[in-house]
Amino acid sequence: MFGKLTGILMLAACLVNFGNAKAKTSETESSETKDYSYCGQGSQRTRSRVRRVIGGQDATAHAWPWTVLIMNYTTVFCGASIISPTFLITAAHCVGRNRTNISLYAGKHRVDERDLHEQKLVVKKFYRHHKYRAGNDFHPGDYDMALIQLKNPIKFTEYVRPICLAGVDMFEPGHECVLSGWGYTNTTVRRTSNILQEIRLPLVSEKVCNSNKSYGGIIPQRYLCAGVPEGGKDGCFYDSGGPLMCAHSDTDPWYLVGMMIWGSGCAQKNKYGVYANVAKQMAMIKDKVKDLPRPYSPTGYPSPVQTSKKDSGDQNKEKIFIAIIAALCVIILILLTTLCIVHFYTRGYICCTATEKRSYRHNRAPRVLHEQNGKLNGEVSV
């Protein structure tokens, strides 16, 4: 009886452990699917209908969860983008060396309303590019890029997330990208927007942007251009530092290609918007930012190329553990079945009841005797 109970308990424990292992794996997968720390992870709101800050439209609330509002006291001043839990990126002319009168808000949509999902961010330190040269009405300057280090890490949620950083030549001229910001929506009424605006703009080649018809060679290699030759679509004043972001499809990660920095007027014919090229600033970014997130993939997990060796090892260990538990369950089940069969034809101590054992012992002797005499009658009394 003790052996029977032990076997049953072993099998039950085995099945429970196997179930727990599967549940743990499912729970891990579920939590990873909801992990908003992967960069470039948009939402249904991100895939909103984007048409044309001048020539644009109101963005759907929280469509661009990495866009940060920079306010100077109580007025819109610039934009920025979340690139890690502790760093934002913006234009250098948006932040002085020790600017203390600015406020930063992530998860913001309307300027005049406190958003349920917004987070007020506290600055620890500004890093302007050491080669930064300020622009003016006639020249965009150079190296107009800055990093904002935060005092406390951002809490990533469905409404506040980081954006990925684009590499060199990741998006070709002509690729349509999106600019977002709270700047002027027209040049007649000089007023910033109360609601985050969005506009779709194609990237423009350096050759076209620096042509005599456009800027005549004054745009540095560290910058890029976006817009349409006929004008009417552009960023404008107080959109500076805001993200120009691109994706290869609605389900792919969003990448920060540039930050709005300059333009000759706003939405003028052949005068494209000028942006600091993120790919050309990677040396400074990687030098300062040590917690850049991994890109999101459509399945909700980082792509195999992006997965670290440590994460791969952990996943493999889990799979091996589950396989071992499953194998042990099968082995224990086979052993119990074998023991039942063996003991049934010997003493029946494990798999038979007490009554069956007495009956079995009572009828075993005559059967053996007949077998020895070569007269097996095949009858068993119950």
Automatic annotation (TrEMBL):
Protein name: Transmembrane protease serine 9-like
Natural source organism: Paramuricea clavata (Red gorgonian)
Keyword field: Disulfide bond, Hydrolase, Membrane, Protease, Serine protease, Transmembrane
Keyword flag Iron-sulfur: no
Listed InterPro entries: Peptidase_S1_PA, Peptidase_S1_PA_chymotrypsin, Peptidase_S1A, Trypsin_dom, TRYPSIN_HIS
SUPFAM superfamilies: Trypsin-like serine proteases (SSF50494)
Database matches in PROSITE patterns: TRYPSIN_DOM, TRYPSIN_HIS
Magnesium as UniProt keyword: no
GO biological process, alphabetically ordered: proteolysis
Gene Ontology molecular functions: serine-type endopeptidase activity
Entry superkingdom: Eukaryota
